[in-house]
């Protein structure tokens, strides 16, 4: 028997053992039924406690030594690697694409890879990134507002988790309608496209709103996060922390990662107080 489960975004209780006829819960087409079955794994999960996770961004690393730099970050305690992919259109800069990610995966077998897709056409790169060994595909909703659910579906079908990212100028309410299809929401705390920018503290109400409305949702912040700003992020409710310059250029990477994680875990344990 499958025990009752809770949709970790809406808080709705479901008894999956009672679902015997998927078609009876959907419209006449077959696609919704298939999507409902898929949701049993991705959406209808037992509520798990939030955990603090630190994902260094390699944007400011020495990309000529990408493998060595990444191994060093993981050895120093990173929980995952945050890989910034830029297309020169959605943001003005260019970084790297799936061939580089695949080469890195061939060197690093077990680490969790999240790609932050700062691209105009996120649909284009879903299959290549899945083939490259990416576990989470985080894309910006701004260029694909009309097709976000479809993109989410394709990402899940490719075997990856979905992250939805919003720029500083995008209202948090814009992402709300898509959260049930996502595994994580990324709130940018700088304008995407450049490393080393100043942290935007006025983004914290977005994080707080998400945490208040979705208590078990993974919420990530990215941009200008470091020892001097982590407390604002953790108290607002972020549990996934992307830090680039603060970690990459630290004399003691392990100490910075540890301090960031401790701040977030402490906030989680105290309910953000």
From TrEMBL:
Pfam assignment, any one: Ribul_P_3_epim
Keyword field contains Glycoprotein: no
Classification via Gene3D superfamilies: Aldolase class I
Biological processes annotated in GO: carbohydrate metabolic process; pentose-phosphate shunt
Enzyme class (EC, first level): isomerase
Pathway: Carbohydrate degradation; pentose phosphate pathway; D-xylulose 5-phosphate from D-ribulose 5-phosphate (non-oxidative stage): step 1/1
The protein's required cofactors: Mn(2+); Co(2+); Zn(2+); Fe(2+)
Enzyme Commission number(s) of this protein: 5.1.3.1
Reactions accelerated catalytically: D-ribulose 5-phosphate = D-xylulose 5-phosphate
A GO MF term: metal ion binding
NCBIfam families to which the protein is assigned, alphabetical: PRK05581.1-4 (NF004076), rpe (TIGR01163)
Protein name, as recorded: Ribulose-phosphate 3-epimerase
Origin species: Anopheles minimus
Lineage of origin: Eukaryota, Metazoa, Ecdysozoa, Arthropoda, Hexapoda
């Amino acid at each position: 028997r499958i025990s009752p489960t809770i949709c970790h975004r809406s808080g709705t209780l479901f008894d999956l053992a009672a679902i015997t006829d998927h078609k009876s819960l959907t419209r006449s087409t077959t696609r919704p039924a298939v999507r409902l079955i898929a949701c049993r794994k991705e959406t209808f999960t037992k509520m798990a406690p939030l955990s603090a996770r630190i994902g260094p961004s390699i944007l400011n690393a020495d990309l000529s030594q990408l493998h060595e730099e990444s191994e060093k970050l993981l050895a120093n305690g990173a929980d995952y690697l945050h890989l910034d992919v830029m297309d020169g259109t959605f943001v003005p800069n260019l970084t790297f694409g799936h061939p580089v990610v695949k080469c890195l995966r061939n060197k690093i077998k077990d680490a969790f890879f999240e790609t932050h897709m700062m691209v105009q056409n996120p649909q284009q790169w879903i299959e290549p990134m899945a083939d490259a060994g990416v576990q989470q595909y985080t894309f910006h909703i701004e260029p694909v507002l009309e097709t976000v659910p479809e993109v989410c579906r394709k990402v899940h079908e490719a075997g990856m988790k979905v992250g939805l990212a919003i720029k500083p100028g995008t209202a948090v309410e814009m992402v709300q309608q898509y959260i049930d299809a996502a595994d994580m929401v990324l709130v940018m705390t700088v304008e995407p496209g450049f490393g080393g920018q100043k942290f935007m503290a006025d983004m914290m109400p977005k994080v707080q709103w998400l945490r208040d409305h979705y208590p078990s949702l993974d919420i990530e912040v990215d941009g200008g996060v470091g020892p001097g700003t982590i407390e604002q992020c953790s108290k607002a409710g972020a549990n996934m922390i992307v830090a680039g310059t603060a970690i990459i250029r630290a004399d003691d990477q392990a100490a910075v990662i540890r301090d960031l994680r401790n701040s977030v875990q402490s906030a989680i344990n105290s309910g953000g107080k």
